[in-house]
Amino acid sequence: MLFYFELAVILLSTKLAGDISVRLGQPAVLGKLLIGIIIGPAILGIVETSKLIDELSEIGVLLLMLIAGLETDLDQLKQNLKASLAVALGGIILPFLGGYGAGLFLGMSQASAIFLGLLLCATSVSISVQTLRDFGKLNTRESTTILGAAVFDDVLVVILLAFAMSFLGGEDVNLTLVIVKKLVFFITIVLIGWKAVPFIMRVLSPLRVSESLISAALIICFSFAYYGELMGIAGIIGSFAAGISISQTSYKHAVEAKLEPIAYAVFVPIFFVSIGMTISFKGLGDQIWFIVIVTIIAIFTKLIGSGLGARWAGFNLRSSFGIGAGMVSRGEVALIIASIGLESKLLAQEYFTAIVLVVILTTVITPPLLKKLFI
Questions:
Q1: Spatial contact of 247 and 7, defined as CB atoms under 8 Å apart
Q2: Cα four-point dihedral sign 120, 363, 305, 174
Q3: Quick one: fold of 57-373?
Q4: CA–CA distance from 268 to each of 15, 256, 261, 276 (Å)?
Q5: Nearest C-alpha neighbor of 65 from the set 130, 18, 158
Q6: SS3 169
Q7: Which residues contact 90 (CB under 8 A, 6 or more apart)?
Q8: pTM score
Q9: Quick one: which of 286, 310, 351, 374 has the fewest CB in 10 Å?
Q10: Distance (Å, rounded) from C-alpha 248 to C-alpha 86?
C-alpha cells in the first residue's frame, strides 16, 4: 500500500520539478534528477529505494532507449560510424589514464587504480538522450554520433573489464569467449532486426486484441534487451537496437505515438528519480577529497577525450565539446561496473559509496553541460 503513495509522490514531484527546471532555462530532466535526491533517503526520505522501484526504473531506461532508436536516422548512423568510434576511443583512453593516475595518487593499489580507470571509461547516454530530446536535437549528426559512440564504448569497456579481471580479479575469465559473444550479438541482432522484426510486427499487429501493435513492439524491445544481457551487452543497447529495427518498418510512427504516453507517464519518471535516490551522504566526510578529485577527472577526461575524438572526425570545436558533454554521464553502466568491482574486491567497500556519488554527479551535471555546449 505504501508503494502507491510513493508512486504518486514520484509522478507529482517529477512533473513539478521538470516544469520548474524549464522555467529556469534548464532541461526538464535536470529537475527530475535533482528531485530524486530531495525526496529520496539522502534528504527527505519520503520515498525509499526498493526492488520494485529498481525494476520499474529498468523498464523506464529500456523504453527511453527504445524511443531513441525509433527516432534515430539509420543512414546517418552508418555515415557517422567512423566518428562514433573516434569519440568512443577518445572517451576511453583519457578517462582510463586519468582514473588510473587518480587512483595511485589517492593511495589505491595498482589493481584498484586500474579498475577505477576502467570504471571512468563507462558511458550511459540515457540522460543525454532525454536532454537532447527535450531540446528537439535528437536527430542531429552530433546526437547520432553520441549514440553510436555509446554502443562502441559499452562493447570496448566490457572487453577491457573482462581482460583486466582475468589478470587482476583472480577470476577465470575467457577473453576469447567474451569477444566472440559480442560479435555474435551484433551479427545476429542485425539479422534479426532486418528479417525477423518486420515479420513479427506484421504477424502480431493485426491480432484482434487491444493494443496488439504496441505489445508487439514491447515484446521485441524486452527480448532484445534480454538477449543483450545474456551476451554480456547492456540491455539498453538491445532496446536501442530494437528501436532502430522497428523504425525501418511502416509501423514506426504508430509505435512512437502509442509508446510515448506509456513511457513518459510512469516508467521514465521512476528511472530519473531512482538515480537520485541512490545517493547517501552518510559517512562521506572522510571521502570528500576523493569525491571532488575523481568527479573533476571523470567530467573533464570524458569531455576532452571524446571531444578530441569528435574534432579529429571533422566536427567544429563547439560541436566536438557538445559531443564530449553528451558522453560525460556514467549512469547505470558505471554503477553496474562498480558493483562488479565490489564483488571481485577490486573496489574497496570504503570507496564504493563515494564512487556512487561520483557517478550521480556526472549524471546530474550532464544536462546543463549539454545545454551550455550543445544547444
A1: no
A2: positive
A3: Na+/H+ antiporter like fold (1.20.1530)
A4: 11, 15, 10, 13
A5: 130
A6: coil
A7: 305, 306, 307, 308, 309, 310, 312
A8: 0.84
A9: 286
A10: 26
